[in-house]
From TrEMBL, chain A:
Residues 7-16 have a biased composition (Polar residues). The keyword Transcription does not apply. This is ABC transporter ATP-binding protein. Residues 26-277, 336-580 form the ABC transporter domain. Residues 1-21 are annotated as: Disordered. It comes from Agromyces soli. It comes from the Bacteria. Pfam families: ABC_tran, oligo_HPY.
TrEMBL record, chain B:
InterPro entries: BP-dependent_transpt_permease (IPR050366), MetI-like (IPR000515), MetI-like_sf (IPR035906), OppC_N (IPR025966). This is ABC transporter permease. Keywords: Cell membrane, Membrane, Transmembrane, Transmembrane helix, Transport. Belongs to the binding-protein-dependent transport system permease family. It holds the Pfam family OppC_N. CDD domains: TM_PBP2. It comes from the Bacteria. The keyword Membrane applies. Its main location: membrane. Signal peptide: none annotated. The chain crosses the membrane at residues 50-70, 115-138, 150-170, 176-195, 233-259, 280-301.
Length: 592, 317
């Protein structure tokens, strides 16, 4: 009958009790998690210690494969089939969760520990209404059992999660919700039983930056109101430091540094943390911002951090290298001119959809223009039309003076060699059945460049340019990491010595350190080969580092276009201001 | 900040010796370069299922090619009605059929018929299925409409039923070729559909877009990038279609519209044995076992090959 007792406290915000302050709510001691594979046990988490006090918030930061999600999943025993806890303790309010039975665990999940999953798109069942799923969660957590009470609580949950007209929304299905709204529903479900601890696993990584900010603000105020302790997992150091009081940095299954966020950020001690701080675009962009110039930002990095980062890439140095290259490349004729470009898709039933609406911009030779916007802003459609992978509805695109609309057949074939793309998904952009040599050599084969021997030589040269060993020639993409595949994609794009490279979210799917490496590579290649980049991204922080000019797109239109410095220092449009404010780390004094 | 009043946590730094840094994104390609076929072979080699099914298939093929190696008894000439439905006798390990023919010898000599029908149908289904499926899926638009509707027409007729009709019309010309043709003509749409769906998925990959941006011609993209990445399910479905073609031939012969009784086949034997199911079940069961074992090994082989060739399964390993 304890359910009924808990039910009474629901809805009224719990006053912050500090009586239990001495004992941490969650204490992880020397946790070890392994995964069974064909070759034996592989350790994913290797002796992690973590302490989280009531009402505090803690973020675990790390790259993919660092064990951060595994740690979080181990707490509520949501490890995938082959994973198991091989040692250590997880104490929740004194109870060791590693020894909890299946039944005990079920009553802990939801009621004591809420969970917000990463991908709002796949974590709601598309065939059931939102109401059904929220009510299911409420019933499973034993908050209410009577029909009316369940429904009333469901409406309350959605209202708390910040959804207007919640009673109408209950009947709707997930596909009628945007990503942000779905994540609100999931957060509501995670908090439905008013758990003491909420685990949020990359809760906003799949969302647009402006939505991310609103959702996180909401999550923060909601957990503060309810007195919920928050554990969240993220790959973004800036975000973690901004949203959590405590930080745990994980690397290869181990904690390398932990403590108060600000201290770690301002004074990172472990070389890995130093690497992360140097490579995080959000922090780099803030730092450049704070000092007003890239050079000053570099100086402010602090001697020890910069030197200890060692072979790691400092993004600010990248930005500086690019700025220097730009000075040399000044006053060049435009490589690309886009005038009044419009793309209208005819959609059956609902009429026309204007994806790109009279967009105009120019890109000078040897410079980088970033096209920034959120999903659905039309930025990728512009890229496809520029690459002539799609036809425009109206408007003109001039590449080196030639109008794309009139280019056909042999001319188009020749033009393609001067303009090459690199796409977002490193796993989708290489044919898994062709080896690296064939993949990089394909442009040369297609355009019948040189002899067999000279083509082979060129493939080696390209591998050198993207800093990959020549021995990769006979290998297949499945042996490479995401960052390495992206290098191969860049090498393929460069094979024909193009003047223009279109980078469509080319670094968005990579871990920060790898991302920083690739950004550095791109900057170096630009300086060396005089490339013109059209850099398409949703991440303004990266833009600060790589781009000379920025066009901000919203709903198919360019709402603001200027040099990067101007856009960052003096944004004219509210939308641009929102985007800038959404870069994580805005409120962190970096001690510059 | 409320945290100031709480138990504050210490700034902890792990000793660097215990948590050494590794080069960022180092290339870890050691050993022999892995190649799709080498990988597939290495994978297949470890599975007992592969060896079992391959051994059976090999045996079946040898039997089909050289029946004389396995039995000295001529399959037809030795029939004596006095032996009707008799049990095993010296030199006749499996006994006799109703007509007094040696069952073992008939199974051995019927193998080549069943296998030939299976192979011819499979080739036909693969060729038609790949042609229709690949063009429909890759080119889309009106090409897709025409080819897919055509496939739907054939698909809407159960191929056994269609083959029954065709074979009763062509009963005069009944032979291995006509029966294979009758089955094959109506069996390809399933393959075409599977391939079309797979091609629709693969053709939206970034690597296809990258190839288009390189100026690679459409047909070449289909051949070099799209088809090889879509073919794995076709390989599975064709091995299964080989099995079901053997079954279909048996079914047609069983129904009396298949091969003339002068041509020995498992289907014919099963058909003729049906009337004596109660009195002499072995005359029906023995050729059925030969049929099932053969069909099963092809299906098993198909599964193993699919697992080995599937790039998604490969990535997970």
């Amino acid at each position: 009958m304890t359910e009924i007792e808990t039910q009474k406290t629901i809805g009224t915000s719990v006053p912050e009790s500090r009586t239990d302050d001495e004992r941490p709510l969650l204490e992880i001691k020397d946790l070890k998690v392994g995964f069974k594979t064909q070759t034996g046990m592989v350790t994913a988490v290797d002796g992690v210690n973590l302490t989280l006090y009531r009402g505090q918030s803690l973020a675990i930061v790390g790259e993919s494969g660092s064990g951060k999600s595994t740690t979080a999943h181990a707490i509520i025993n949501l490890l995938p089939g082959s994973g198991e806890i091989t040692g250590g303790q997880i104490l929740l309010d004194g109870q060791d969760l590693t020894k909890a039975t299946k039944h005990e665990m079920e009553s802990i999940r939801g009621r004591k520990v809420g969970f917000v999953p990463q991908d709002p798109m796949s974590n709601l069942n598309p065939v059931w209404s939102i109401g059904f799923q929220v009510e299911e969660a409420i019933r499973a957590n034993g908050i209410a059992s009577e029909r009316k009470a369940v429904k009333a609580r469901a409406i309350e949950v959605l209202k708390e999660a910040g959804l207007q007209d919640a009673d109408r929304r209950l009947k709707q299905f997930p596909h009628q919700f945007s990503g942000g709204m779905r994540q609100r529903v999931l957060i509501g479900m995670g908090l439905a039983a008013n758990p003491q601890l909420l685990i949020a696993d990359e809760p906003t990584s799949a969302l647009d930056v402006t939505v991310q900010r609103v959702i996180l603000d909401h999550l923060e105020s909601l957990t503060r109101e309810l007195g919920t302790t928050l554990l969240f997992i993220t790959h973004d150091l800036g975000l973690a430091a901004e949203r959590a009081e405590q930080l745990v940095v994980m690397y290869k299954g181990r904690v390398v540094e932990s403590g108060p966020s600000l201290q770690i950020l301002q004074n990172p001690q472990h070389p890995y943390t130093q690497r992360l701080v140097a490579a995080a675009p959000s922090l780099a962009s803030r730092r450049i911002q704070a000092t007003g110039s890239i050079k000053a930002a570099e100086d402010s990095m602090g001697e020890d951090a910069a030197s200890a980062a060692g072979e790691a890439i400092d993004l600010i140095a990248t930005a500086e290298a690019r700025a220097e290259a730009l000075e040399a490349a000044a006053a060049q004729p435009p490589a690309i001119v886009v005038e009044d470009l419009t793309k209208v898709y005819k959609i059956r039933g609902t009429g026309d959809f204007t994806a790109v609406d009279s967009v105009s911009f120019q890109i000078a030779k040897g410079t980088t223009t970033a096209l920034v916007g959120e999903s659905g802003s039309g930025k990728s459609t512009v890229a496809k039309m520029l690459l002539k992978l799609e036809d425009s509805t109206s408007g003109r695109i001039l590449v080196g003076g030639a109008d794309l609309a009139n280019v056909r057949g042999q001319e188009l074939f020749a033009l393609r060699s001067r303009m090459q793309p690199v796409f977002q998904d490193p796993y989708g952009s290489l044919n898994p059945l062709r080896n690296i040599g064939n993949t990089i050599g394909e442009p040369l084969m297609t355009h019948k460049v040189g002899t067999k021997a000279s083509r082979r030589e060129r493939v080696f040269e390209l591998l050198d340019q993207v800093s990959l060993p020549r021995t990769l020639v006979g290998r297949y993409p499945n042996e490479l990491s995401g960052g390495q595949r992206q290098r191969i994609a860049i090498a393929r794009a460069l094979a024909l010595k193009p003047e223009i490279v279109v980078l469509d979210e080319a670094v968005s799917a990579l871990d920060v350190l790898v991302q920083a490496q690739i950004l550095r590579l791109l900057a170096d290649l630009q300086a060396e080969l005089g490339l013109t980049y059209l850099f398409i991204t949703h991440d303004l922080a990266v833009v600060r580092v790589i781009a000379d000019n920025v066009c901000v797109m919203q709903k198919g239109r360019i709402v603001e276009a200027a040099t990067t410095d101007e856009v960052f220092e003096n944004p004219q449009q509210q939308y641009t201001k929102d985007l800038l404010a959404a870069i994580p780390g805005a409120n962190i004094p970096l001690g510059v | 900040m409320s945290s100031n009043t709480r138990s504050t946590q210490q700034h902890y730094v792990a000793p660097v010796e215990e948590t050494p840094l590794v080069a960022i994104d180092a290339v870890k390609a050691e050993g022999k370069p892995s190649n799709l076929w080498r990988d597939a072979w290495a994978d297949v080699r470890r599975r007992p299922m592969f060896w079992i099914s391959a051994a059976i298939i090999l045996l079946v093929v040898v039997v089909a090619l050289f029946p004389g190696l396995f039995t000295q008894v001529p399959p037809n000439n030795d029939c004596q009605l006095s032996n009707s439905n008799a049990g095993p006798a010296p030199g006749h390990p499996l006994g006799f059929t109703k007509q007094g023919c040696d069952i073992y010898s008939r199974i051995i000599h019927g193998t080549s018929t069943s296998l030939s029908v299976g192979l011819i149908v499979t080739v036909l289904v693969a060729v038609l299925g790949i042609l229709f499926g690949a063009f429909a899926g890759f080119y889309g638009g009106w090409v897709d409409s025409v080819l897919s509707r055509l496939g739907d027409i054939f698909f809407s007729i159960p191929y056994i039923l269609a083959a029954v009709v065709v074979m009763s019309v062509l009963s005069k010309y009944a032979s291995i070729w006509t029966i294979a043709l009758a089955i094959g003509i109506f069996a390809w749409p399933a393959t075409a559909r599977v391939l079309r769906a797979e091609i629709l998925r693969v053709k939206n990959s970034d690597f296809v877009m990258a190839a288009t941006a390189l100026g690679v011609s459409r047909f070449r993209i289909l051949l070099r990038h799209v088809l090889p990445n879509s073919i794995a399910p076709v390989i599975v479905i064709t091995t299964i279609s080989l099995a079901s073609a053997i079954v279909a031939e048996a079914t047609l012969s069983f129904l009396g519209v298949g091969l003339p009784s002068s041509i020995m086949s498992w289907g014919n034997d099963i058909s003729q044995a049906q009337r004596d199911l109660r009195t002499a079940p072995q005359t029906l069961i023995l050729p059925s076992i030969a049929l099932s074992v053969t069909v099963l090994s092809f299906i098993m082989l198909g599964e193993v090959v699919r697992d080995a060739l599937d790039p998604k399964a490969r990535a997970r390993r």
